[in-house]
Amino acid sequence: MNLADLPLGPLERALLDSLHRLDPQAEVGVLAAAALCCEALGRGDVCLPLARWAGQRPWPEVAFNLPPLQRWREQLQHSSLVAGAGGFAPLILDRERLYLARYQAYEAQLAAQLLARAAQQPLVDEAQLGDSLTRLFAFNTTAPDWQRLAAAQAVRRNLAVISGGPGTGKTTTVVRLLAALLEQSGTSLAIGLAAPTGKAAARMAEAIRQAKAALPVSEAIKAALPEQARTLHRLLGSRGDSPQVRHHAGNPLALDVLVVDEASMVDLALMAKLVAALPANARLILLGDKDQLAAVEAGAVFAELCEGRGFDAQAAADLQRISGQTVAIENPRSRLGDAVVLLTHSHRFAGDSGIGELARRINAGDAPGTLQLLGEGRADLVWQPQPTPQALLERLEQGYAPYLAATQTGDPAAAFAAFNGFRALTAQREGAFGVSGLNEALEARIKRTERIAARERWYVGRPVMVRQNDYALGLFNGDIGLCLNSEFGLRVFFEGEDGFRAFAPARLPSHDSAFAMTVHKSQGSEFAEVLLALPETPSPLLTRALLYTGITRAKRQVEIWALPARLAEAVNTRAERAAGLAERLAIDAPASDSVAAPDVQLDLF
Asked: Residue 202 carries which DSSP code?
């Protein structure tokens, strides 16, 4: 087979050219595996599982089948382009998984460092901790109080992974556990707050500023709680397009505690660099929702960390003694063990909430139950099972009418409040039910209604989403701005820590109109009402995690425009990314999985 006949992208083509120069005699099966590894990263997979691909036709339009598993494995093992775990080559064969070397190193080092951190048990004054927990979580009446248990574990361990759905009180938990930590250690702790995006970092900082005012602690403790958060890239000191960062094991962050919010959005490479940059004795607290969409880049790290969680008999006894809470004994399958705590009680969705029940059925993979619930006509659930583009545009124009009316006043506070009252979300960018199509069609309708020239790019009421970080302006990927009239003409207003910031449209970094946004971009946001539009045709993007993430952005009502078949497909499709982190962390993992790959591999391949 001629490799030039393969339908490869420029990145895959460049990789194969490089490998062919290193070994002109390389087997076609080896080079095809390398190309598939590269393509896998684009799908979010960390590695290529050989058993899943062996004997398959990877490119349907080309008459080429991969070798059977045994022969394929032998080709890889005998190639100079492939090394075993801990070796040095462009490709790494780690049991039945083939990696690009850098990603195998990321995964192996991350697993080893997390296990080392989880094993550390800092000195704790248990009497003081018990008093802190009783006072800080006195408002909770649920049993067991998982917020209190999560705080107890975060104080007693150098690694804490706290997962919970919308409204389960992750921010409430973290601000109180930080107060408990400060009461343990004094007010000299260096605490960092971070999140994957600028929007998430700003929201986290604001939530903590608001929550700490009501804490039953001394003013000194309140003053020691941090009020600023940074993006993970800024925290680590990213260097443009280079994979290298300023802070690493040789130049660690000057922190005693790091809290990362929206950790489900953190990909493998970024998480590996983050953990490597933390001092060995620093605490790491990861907050997220294991059921949400994973990172856009390769890996589903947070979900893998939450696999195999549980409290053994010793952990359950310790927690009962310290927190007064009784938990069920469930021997963990992960060596992270009791470092993982799942918050289960939602304070946002009441027991009779249709949105809450819908989220549970989606996560359970119950497609018939999901469709049945949507057909019951609950007040907070609306379903349009026969959507058409024209009807959808009319509904969006109606939904955004209060917002467009609010923009006429020129008051950014009123405009943002109205804009957050209703939001359209989609599964994909292209198509009549995608972001690009809906934004373009809706803008055309609005311009005709408001008698705005079709060629005018900027007009009162245009919402935009920033697509790239601009640290000079303090604008970040995902930030939402609204175009309003001001005394200086049209200005785009963004929410800031001290009110609203206005920019001339010409000053903005790359951006798009944002009446509709993808579910991916909505992560971490909350809106009073959400309209979720799914494509009419089958799509690999339609997964359980996407549907769950989309509907849980709504606080009051969710409206779904989707054919029954597309909804059922989404509920039945569990997005599984090929990776080996959970297997490396498993209790029955081979001892070799605790050994990190050489540091030198991280930035060479």
From this structure: H
